Backbone:
């Protein structure tokens, strides 16, 4: 892989950017009192203090005509992307017939307000005029080169225009190349050509590939990862990856966003969120605003946590001007301000994420109406009325005390929704529950009302055995212990517990019970160093029915002593016909001293081939794979963990995944 390209002329722009930051700090002094990131500061002040940008996509009409729009645009943001007017259909609607009026308007506004401009977008299948789409291959490539040379060249010496989306949305949802007129006429070479033309037009500009639905780790983002890796290996000047971030509260948050950004960063590129908005199904409600605010703070927090993330651009800022209702008629309200320019909880969430929560001291409202339902001999379902919070509720702690009085409450779980299922309870037993809410700044609410639950007695006369526990796996294996976990069983009268069975060695011998558990996990201690054991579990119900035994997992304890040892756990994150992604693969230092490197070995089933990897260096010999740490994640303190991941292609119809993960140091 080639190191990141640092063109000589880039230093000119860097100096200007430093000057802009210095200028911002100077301006900020009279406004800010004790701390440079005071609650009164606009978003851009806090972002600049963290070394990031916070930007918005500008619409030219209100920028010219509405004072309220302009005021927020210049006060709150230090970065601008043109929402439409730098696109091909605006800038060159017919061959060599140029219109820079909108683009110039935005660039001039940015220059006047010390904001950086991200050019959007050079080569896209959408908003490109018909005259381009109908060209033959040679003429189309020439048109692309001319367009890039003229448009990028126009701003090449403007210090505010620092970056460009060179190619936009080149993948389909399965990770194949989008069947666009670009691809169908020129093949995938149009991508490398576009980057080379852009570099020639402005050697200083940061050149990005941009797409949507690539925020989490999935087939599409992995295709993008593989493409960026391969382009850079061929010295194609890809400097940056843009994650658009068009999110919707009804589809859930891509919780591996930060990890995804990190794997791209490990390729040596800058990453950025380029078009963030979080739409809701209309109408707005307090609960939807709260969820939306949480999504916004999650995205900003992810960017703050990744050094290579340059900043976050929001796709507009007021609900008065947003593409969402035009495209999704029953959805909207996706931005930080409402249509009357009033700040929404999403604004506060972004603000507080940028200033690291230092200005938010408001606790969420107390969860109420805590109630229990679906009580069995071993489980209960809890639900409550959701809390609200100015920066969004991050989650709930579920607290439990034994009996109907006395004892003390201890946390037994967390939930990001207003419900929770507590399993592994004993039959005929009373428990008390409470919940409390937490926000993104760490403020905790008062506890809810208490609900008392008594589990049922189990099924007398019941003859139905629990389902077989599945996916038994071991993790955190040390020289004397191992942690087992499995997929919980179900049962008509409720599972009361599990028997943990163990046999000596890797084969032979017989299984004997070594413990019980009321949850789907168990820690087996007192083992000998450097020794193999096999484990199985089986479930019991209240009537004494016993399930079949689970799969067998073989564990070899580490060598003990004072040196480092490691364990590994592997998770299949997503799979489809023809492939799967395993991640996170978690490596933990189980020893008593730091380790500086680790090696994980595993087996790929026949016909399976590795097609992508991140945060580790994986080599294969036949079907045996060896993963070594990357340069930045080999050092682990005792107890510390790191993760890596990979993608595999497999024969159609084959549902198996990689297995037999073992970890060793070095
Ligand atoms: O300006 C004309 C107006 O004169 C005309 O009366 C009106 C009639 O439909 O259309 C107006 O143009 C519209 C333009 O937005 C400006 O409002 C276009 O029809 C409309 O298609 C265009 O939509 C833009 C869309 O890209 C085009 O695909 C959205 O504003 C813009 O937010 C959206 O942005 C894209 C990013 O570029 C790439 N990623 C996804 C993102 C959201 O779709």
Residues:
């Amino acid at each position: 892989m080639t190191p990141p390209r640092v063109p000589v002329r880039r230093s000119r722009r860097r100096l200007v950017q430093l000057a802009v930051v210095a200028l911002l700090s100077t301006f900020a002094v009279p406004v800010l009192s004790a701390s440079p990131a005071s609650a009164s500061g606009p978003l851009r002040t806090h972002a600049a203090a963290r070394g990031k940008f916070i930007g918005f996509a500008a619409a030219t009409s209100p920028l010219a005509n509405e004072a309220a729009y302009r005021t927020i645009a210049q006060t709150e943001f230090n970065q601008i992307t043109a929402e439409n007017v730098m696109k091909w259909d605006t800038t060159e609607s017919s061959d060599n017939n140029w219109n820079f009026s909108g683009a110039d308007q935005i660039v001039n506004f940015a220059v006047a307000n010390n904001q950086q401009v991200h050019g959007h977008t050079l080569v896209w299948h959408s908003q490109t005029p018909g005259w381009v789409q109908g060209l033959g291959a040679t003429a189309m490539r020439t048109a692309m080169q001319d367009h890039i040379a003229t448009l990028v060249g126009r701003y090449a010496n403007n210090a505010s225009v620092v970056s460009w989306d060179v190619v936009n949305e080149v993948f389909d949802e399965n990770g194949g190349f989008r069947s666009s007129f670009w691809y169908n006429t020129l093949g995938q070479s149009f991508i490398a050509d576009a980057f080379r033309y852009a570099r020639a037009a402005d050697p200083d500009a940061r050149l990005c590939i941009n797409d949507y639905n690539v925020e989490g780790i999935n087939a599409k983002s992995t295709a993008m990862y593989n493409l960026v890796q391969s382009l850079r290996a061929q010295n194609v000047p890809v400097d940056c990856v843009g994650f658009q971030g068009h999110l919707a509260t009804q589809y859930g948050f891509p919780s591996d966003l930060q990890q995804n950004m990190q794997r791209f960063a490990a390729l040596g590129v800058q990453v950025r969120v380029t078009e963030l908005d979080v739409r809701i199904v209309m109408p707005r409600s307090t609960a939807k605003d709260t969820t939306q605010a949480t999504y916004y703070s999650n995205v900003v927090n992810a960017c703050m946590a990744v050094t290579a993330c340059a900043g976050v651009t929001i796709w507009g800022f007021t609900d008065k001007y947003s593409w969402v209702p035009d495209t999704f008629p029953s959805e909207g309200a996706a931005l930080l301000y409402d249509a009357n320019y009033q700040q929404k909880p999403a604004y506060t969430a972004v603000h507080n994420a940028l200033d690291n929560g230092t200005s938010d001291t408001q606790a969420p409202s107390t969860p109420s109406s805590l109630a229990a339902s679906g009580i069995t001999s071993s489980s209960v379902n809890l639900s409550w009325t959701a809390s609200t919070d100015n920066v969004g509720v991050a989650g709930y702690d579920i607290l439990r005390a034994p009996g109907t009085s006395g004892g003390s409450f201890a946390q037994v779980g967390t939930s990001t929704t207003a419900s929770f299922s507590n399993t592994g309870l004993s039959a005929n037993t009373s428990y008390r529950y409470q919940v409390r809410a937490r926000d993104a700044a760490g403020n905790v609410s008062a506890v809810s009302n208490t609900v008392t639950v008594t589990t049922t007695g189990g099924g007398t006369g019941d003859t139905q055995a629990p389902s077989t526990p599945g996916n038994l796996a071991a993790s955190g294996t040390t020289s004397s212990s191992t942690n087992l976990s499995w997929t919980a069983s179900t049962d008509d009268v409720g599972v009361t517990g599990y028997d943990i069975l163990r046999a000596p060695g890797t084969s032979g011998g017989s299984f004997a019970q070594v413990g019980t558990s009321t949850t789907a996990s168990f820690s087996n201690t007192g083992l000998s160093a450097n020794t193999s054991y096999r484990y199985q579990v089986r479930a019991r119900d209240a009537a004494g029915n016993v399930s079949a035994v689970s799969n067998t997992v073989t564990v070899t304890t580490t060598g003990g002593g004072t040196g480092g040892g490691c364990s590994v756990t592997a998770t299949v994150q997503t799979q489809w016909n023809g492939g799967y992604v395993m991640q996170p693969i978690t490596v933990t230092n189980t020893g008593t001293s730091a380790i500086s490197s680790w090696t994980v070995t595993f087996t790929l089933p026949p016909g399976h081939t590795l097609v992508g990897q991140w945060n580790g260096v994986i080599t294969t010999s036949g079907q045996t794979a060896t993963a070594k740490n990357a340069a930045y994640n080999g050092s682990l303190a005792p107890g510390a963990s790191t993760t890596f991941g990979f993608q595999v292609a497999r024969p159609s119809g084959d549902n198996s995944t990689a297995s037999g993960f073992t970890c060793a140091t070095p």
Remarks:
- The domain at 368-451 is CATH 2.60.40.10 (Immunoglobulin-like).
- The CA atoms of residues 503 and 511 lie 4 Å apart.
